[in-house]
């Protein structure tokens, strides 16, 4: 049976998982955390540095391990990394242990947001093509979420979660 106190926010970089997660946490009283920040704190270095020095495979193993460690907590809202659902059975794990919420955003907004942030390791180069590629490869995982949200109204999300 799913734990209704564990909410995992998933979606591409730039969809507002951290921003929306803070609003949702305030509305619910749940703890909010950002998995990317947990990784950086645990590793003592930035995600970009982890990618540069140890590669994506190492990063994904750390990400999966810390996702599982964090999930042992009680009530929370966790903004996951964009790839968290796609590696090491992340989506299955999150679906088994809580409620997954897929945040979407239109392509143009994603391009504009990501173009402003050059620190994202998987978004270097041609941002438009990278977004298209990630949407194509990751949608199969994201579409397994319990809830898909296009609107960022915290009260609507809470109502959908309560129905589950």
In short:
The chain has 164 residues and is of the alpha/beta class. It contains seven helices and five strands; from the N terminus they run βαβααβαβααβα.
Order of helices and strands: EHEHHEHEHHEH
Q: What is the C-alpha radius of gyration, as a whole number of Å?
A: 15 Å
Q: What is the mean pLDDT?
A: 87
Given as residue ranges, the uncertain stretches (5+ residues, pLDDT < 50) are none
Instruction: Please report which band the strand proportion falls in: under 5%, 5-15%, 15-25%, 25-35%, 35-45% or over 45%.
Output: 5-15%
| Structure class | alpha/beta
Inertia-based shape: globular
Oligomer: single chain
Tally of helical segments: 7
For the biggest β-sheet, the strand order reads 2-3-1-4-5
Give the helix proportion (percent range): 40-55%
Tell how many strands the DSSP assignment holds: 5
Biggest sheet overview: 5 strands, parallel
Give the CA-CA distance, first to last residue.
11 Å
């Amino acid at each position: 049976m799913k734990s209704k106190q564990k909410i995992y926010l998933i979606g591409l970089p730039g969809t507002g998982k951290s921003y929306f997660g803070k609003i949702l946490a305030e509305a619910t009283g749940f703890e909010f955390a950002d998995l990317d920040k947990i990784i950086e704190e645990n590793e003592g270095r930035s995600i970009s540095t982890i990618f540069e020095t140890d590669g994506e495979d190492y990063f994904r193993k750390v990400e999966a391990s810390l996702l599982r460690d964090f999930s042992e907590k009680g009530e929370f809202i966790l903004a996951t990394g964009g790839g968290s659902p796609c590696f090491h059975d992340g989506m299955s794990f999150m679906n088994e242990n809580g409620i997954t919420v897929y945040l979407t955003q239109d392509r143009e907004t994603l391009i504009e947001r990501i173009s402003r942030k050059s620190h994202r390791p998987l978004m270097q180069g041609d941002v438009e093509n990278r977004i298209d590629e990630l949407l194509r490869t990751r949608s199969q995982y994201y579409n397994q979420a319990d809830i898909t949200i296009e609107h960022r109204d915290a009260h609507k999300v809470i109502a959908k979660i309560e129905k589950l």
